Sequence to fold (112 residues):
Amino acid sequence: LRGVKPIPAPDNMLQFVQAKREEVSADLDLAGIPFMELPPTLPDRLTQLVPFSVAVELQCAPVGRDQHRLTVAMLDPTDAAALRRLQHVTSMTIFPVSCDESALHSLLTHAW
Fold:
């Protein structure tokens, strides 16, 4: 690997990770996918729509409903296979939104 220089790790890794998250968030904004701040808990009327095992598998959480449309916060809101699976499981139109990874993991630590 001649001529290849290693990239030095930033002095403050936390700032580096935050900058990368903001970069990914900006990319999703450009793709027209909104970002949502997640609540600390979800109402039962939403959690009963998506089985907990499916939410953990697909890394998502139901965060809103408007008639036959379910808003779902996802780590990868562009994952077409996950969107199809959610639509099949819920029999609803899925409206994906992006979210903070740590907030989503916090919601997925307690089974519903």
In short: The chain has five helices and three strands.
